[in-house]
UniProtKB/TrEMBL annotation, chain A:
Family: Belongs to the complex I subunit 4 family.
Record's bilayer topology term: Multi-pass membrane protein
Protein name, per record: Putative NADH dehydrogenase (Quinone), subunit M (NADH-quinone oxidoreductase, subunit M)
Localisation: Endomembrane system; Membrane
Source organism of the structure: Deinococcus deserti (strain DSM 17065 / CIP 109153 / LMG 22923 / VCD115)
TrEMBL record, chain B:
One GO MF term attached to the UniProt entry: NADH dehydrogenase (ubiquinone) activity
Native source species: Deinococcus deserti (strain DSM 17065 / CIP 109153 / LMG 22923 / VCD115)
Protein name (Swiss-Prot/TrEMBL): NADH-quinone oxidoreductase subunit N
Quaternary organization: NDH-1 is composed of 15 different subunits. Subunits NuoA, H, J, K, L, M, N constitute the membrane sector of the complex.
Transmembrane segments: 12-32, 39-60, 72-92, 104-121, 127-146, 158-179, 199-219, 240-261, 273-292, 299-316, 328-347, 368-391, 403-423, 448-469
Membrane topology summary: Multi-pass membrane protein
PANTHER family per record: NADH DEHYDROGENASE (PTHR22773)
Length: 474, 485
């Protein structure tokens, strides 16, 4: 079932090319829904066992996959948001066949990233998710996309290739027979070499996370993407750095991650605050959201790098649900753009004519700035709680971000949706049929898990405990 | 009394079949149209491949080990034949447009392939040199065959620099002979392996010989700083010829290097640290120069230089790992480069190739070619799941495990530059464009399309299931005896 879940989307995207034009939307929607359904079935069954067979025997590369705990939670969110993205694509983009195929193609890459329990397999999926993201930007992007594209790809590959070298090093220096995570854990690399390899690995993850100073691709990537916000949703899902550090970084480099903890936590706290500060000055919704996402990711990083159980659980919780509401916010920005033809944050008065759009957007912003009762709060609070036990001052710096977040979010919201309507502004339509679902469903999920977090926490807690056990007495 | 030479026909049969093709093209050229000759040659190439298949695992040798059809030779020979096959197919479509459609083209191609196979099958330095010279001479003619200034210039450049390369190579061989007293790989390996047999003065000569050999080969495979001729020749020659030169000829030159440095001189001191420097320089210069190109054909030429750097990394590994990596990488490189250049050959308006900006919107005019070209570029850049990724991975691994860690890191860093220059054309193709098309309107012809399909299918299949080819290549026993018994 797990293999079906991983590869169903890419099969679907191939199938789309053979599908007559008028049925493509239905087929894509069906495939995405089916993938989500499979994910829910796996959840009901309590995750899957580790499945491992040799893939390239001569190199010790295995095909090892497993979906449980944190990875299952993230996979579910991915499947859910891909489904939402398909729904909105079908409505918003004329002749959406290519875009739908790319969404499904990327979904496979993302699910693979979360399921992989072999380093090379992880790398393969990691890069696979990149190709559709690049194509989305190339086909649907705006005028200055080439620069954004090259920047995005160069940063990503810069990290990835060093990561590949460090993977080779882990296996060779540790003397493990295969690249499977279990084998590598049994044959760890010791000493100073571990730190070097960790830095190589970390560079890739810091680009994806993203972490200051490797974040420069992010705002351009979002700004130059199609204004509907659909590629941005997938881009949000692509921020898998936090997960990578959690799943592979902590387990394979326990000593190095303890050793580098203060530096990394400092970088993370700085990223969170710095991004929030920049976000405050943005006048383009996409850039604002990009920096807001960056700020959240600083939080996630703070949690993961602190290596404290509460904080790591919080980080994973935030990582999962941040995708949900930030993705939905990108879509709401797309809807706003469709109505007023601009992404400027100083439009004014949209609320008077599109009350439902304004209301749902505001609710999603509340989730984003961690208002209690929403999923974001549980994540951020746990991170602060856990990280405080490790480094109170850095946590304090990061904590200021929550105030800054409220400032940038509410200012931008106020200047767009409230204030006076400019004279001669076009008539703005309110939400229509499927748009209700597109914004409403993620919000409903965010509220549900904000109030009743037990199902998600029960899923994540054992996995986090297992990973942190690699640290020994910590 | 001299021993009677041992002449066995079976191991030379694959070479003779190709040579027969060359002779047939020379003679029948007076009677048959070129198209028929090409088809005959295609059949002969396949036959030669089959005869190689029958020799698998036989370890056959001829001329007292001067020529050996061991598995390493067969694997490299097969890669050479794959490249030849693709070149011939493409030339069916484009030779006429490139104004090189006469029987001599086929004859020269097949002579060059004969030389290439001789290198791969060589068991001593003399056979290797003969093969190299046949290959090079035919190559000089091929590069000049078209009646244009650019092509003449590139051919002359190729000839002059190639001759210098050969001269250095021959001098190096003389010194190696002086130091070890033999031309035979196995003999040399034996003497080099037990340095105690060599007087200290001989070691100096051996090192000098090895370094000169390295410089000579560096000319042939285009390692920096001996790469200067490559971009001009590859971009000046007609595209189907560039295809041949950048794949088949390069594979053969690497086969020679593998024989000499992985086998005969494997234990000789000095050359590996020099090769390390050359490799680093190639990686940096090749990738950085490619970044600045605006002409797509020239970009592919520089990309060929950059890939030489990755291939040379494999040579730095132990013969077992490096040989396997090289065996895998060379096939992938051939398939990818041949497919990419086939598309250029089909779509270019003139033999100068196309500008990168001309590729804008190609996806909306020739969707299949655009997707195929994107796959090729992604594979050249080393993005999984395409086969180029595993090629790069294997090269990294071979160098890393033999202690060249910083070289692997450098290779990873320069790959980022590679990604940028491969990505730009790949992405431009998918950007919508309303200006009129800038391609040759009648580019899509069945043989070219078939070649491209072959390359792309290979790249995808071997990317998802690398074991199909790597399973053959990875057997360390193949590469342990590069120098023969």
């Amino acid at each position: 079932m797990i293999h079906l879940m991983i590869f169903l989307p890419v099969l679907g995207s191939l199938l789309l090319m053979a599908t007559p034009r008028r049925w493509r939307e239905e087929v894509a929607g069906f495939i995405a829904a089916l993938t989500l359904g499979l994910g829910l079935l796996i959840w009901r069954a309590g995750g899957t066992e580790l499945f491992s067979i040799p893939w390239i025997d001569a190199l010790g590369v295995t095909y090892s996959v497993q979906l449980d705990g944190v990875s299952l939670a993230l996979a579910l969110v991915t499947a859910f948001m891909s489904f939402i993205a398909c729904l909105y694509t079908a409505r918003r983009i004329p002749n959406p066949g290519t875009m739908l195929a790319l969404i499904l193609g990327m979904e496979t890459g993302l699910l693979g990233i979360f399921a992989a329990r072999d380093l090379i397999l992880f790398y393969v999926f990691f890069e696979d998710a990149l190709i559709p993201a690049l194509l989305m930007l190339a086909i649907y992007g705006k005028d200055r996309r080439m620069k954004a594209l090259v920047k995005f790809a160069a940063y990503t590959l810069f990290g990835s290739l060093l990561m590949l070298v460090s993977f080779i090093g882990i296996k060779y220096l540790g003397g493990s027979p295969t690249f499977a995570l279990a084998d590598l854990r049994a044959n760890p690399v010791q000493g100073a070499m571990q730190t070097w390899l960790y830095i190589g690995f970390l560079l890739a993850m810091a680009v994806k996370l993203p972490l200051w100073p490797l974040h420069a691709w992010l705002p351009d990537f979002h700004e130059q993407n199609h204004e509907s916000g659909i590629p941005d949703v997938m881009g949000t899902l692509y921020k898998v750095g936090g997960y990578g550090i959690f799943q592979f970084g902590i387990t394979l480099f326990p000593d190095a991650s303890l050793e580098l903890r203060p530096i990394l936590m400092g970088l993370a706290a700085f990223t969170a605050l710095y991004a929030a500060w920049i976000a405050f000055h943005q006048t383009d919704w996409k850039r604002l959201l990009a920096y807001a996402g960056l700020s959240h990711m600083g939080f996630v990083a703070l949690g993961v790098f602190s290596l404290n159980e509460t904080a790591v659980i919080g980080a994973m919780y935030l990582l999962a649900f941040q995708n949900l509401y930030t993705g939905a916010l990108f879509l709401s920005v797309g809807m706003l753009q469709e109505r007023i033809g601009s992404l400027d944050t100083r439009v004014g008065g949209v609320m008077t004519q599109a009350g439902a759009l304004g209301g749902l957007t505001m609710a999603l912003w509340f989730a984003s700035i961690a208002v209690p009762g929403m999923a974001g709060f549980i994540g951020e609070f746990s991170i602060l709680l856990g990280a405080y036990q490790i480094s109170p001052w850095l946590t304090f710096i990061a904590g200021i971000t929550t105030i800054a977040a409220a400032a940038y979010a509410l200012t931008a919201f106020q200047t767009t949706f409230w204030q006076a309507r400019p004279l001669g502004g076009v008539r703005v339509a309110d939400l229509q049929h499927v748009e209700w679902l597109v914004l409403g469903l993620p919000l409903a999920v965010a509220i549900f898990f904000g109030i009743y977090s037990a199902p998600a926490l029960n899923l994540m807690q054992p996995a986090v405990k297992a990973v942190l056990s690699a640290l020994g007495g910590q | 009394m001299l021993p009677t030479p041992e002449v066995a026909l079976a191991p030379i049969l694959p070479i003779l079949i190709v040579l027969a093709g060359a002779l047939a093209s020379t003679i029948l050229g007076f009677h048959l149209p070129r198209r028929n000759l090409t088809i005959i040659n295609l059949v002969l190439v396949v036959l030669s491949g089959i005869s190689m298949g029958t020799l698998w695992n036989s370890g056959a040798r001829s001329f007292n080990g001067g020529l050996q059809a061991d598995n390493a030779a067969l694997l490299l020979g097969l890669i050479i034949l794959v490249g030849t096959f693709m070149t011939l197919l493409v030339s069916l479509d484009t030779a006429w447009r490139a104004r090189v459609s006469f029987p001599e083209l086929d004859a020269m191609l097949m002579y060059a392939v004969t030389g290439c196979l001789l290198i791969a099958f060589s068991g001593d330095l003399i056979v290797m040199l003969i093969g190299l010279e046949i290959m090079s001479l035919a190559g000089y003619v091929l590069a000049t065959l078209q009646d244009s200034r650019r092509s003449e210039e590139s051919g002359l450049k190729y000839f002059l620099l190639g001759s210098v390369g050969s001269a250095i190579l021959i001098y190096g061989m003389a010194l190696v002979y002086g130091a070890t007293g033999s031309f035979n790989y196995a003999e040399i390996a034996l003497r080099v392996g037990t340095v105690s047999n060599l007087a200290p003065a001989n070691v100096g000569i051996l090192v000098g010989g090895a370094l000169l050999l390295l410089a000579g080969f560096a000319f042939k495979v285009a390692l920096a700083p001996f790469h200067q001729w490559t971009p001009d020749v590859y971009s000046g020659a007609p595209t189907s010829i560039s295809l041949f030169l950048s794949t088949v000829v390069k594979v053969a030159a690497f086969a020679g290097m593998l024989r000499v440095f992985g086998g005969a001189l494997a234990d000789a001191p000095g050359w590996s640290s020099t090769l390390q420097v050359l490799t680093a320089a190639t990686l940096i210069i090749g990738n950085m120069a490619a970044l600045l190109q605006t002409n797509f054909k020239r970009l592919l030429a520089y990309s060929a230089v950059a890939h030489t750097g990755f291939l040379a990394m494999a040579l730095l590994g132990t013969p077992q790992m490096g040989g396997a990596a090289l065996g895998y990488y060379l096939l992938i490189y051939t398939l990818t480069t041949a497919a990419a250049l086939a598309i250029v050959a089909a779509l270019q308006r003139s033999e100068a190739g196309m500008e990168i900006s001309d590729l804008r919107g190609l996806y909306y005019r020739h969707p299949a070619y655009a997707v195929a070209l994107a796959v090729c570029l992604a594979s050249l850049a080393g993005l999984p799941p395409f086969a180029g990724f595993f090629g790069k991975y294997l090269a990294f691994q071979a160098a890393f495990q033999n202690g060249y860690m910083w070289l692997s890191v450098l290779a990873a860093l320069t790959s980022v530059a590679a990604l940028v220059y491969y990505l730009r054309p790949a992405m431009l193709m998918f950007m919508p464009d309303r200006t009129p098309a800038r391609e040759y309107a009648h580019g899509q012809r069945p043989p070219t399309t078939f070649t491209v399909g072959l390359g792309v299918a290979g790249v995808i299949l071997l990317g998802i299931l690398p074991n199909l080819w790597y399973g053959w290549v990875a057997n360390p026993a193949i590469w342990q005896q590069l120098a023969g018994q």
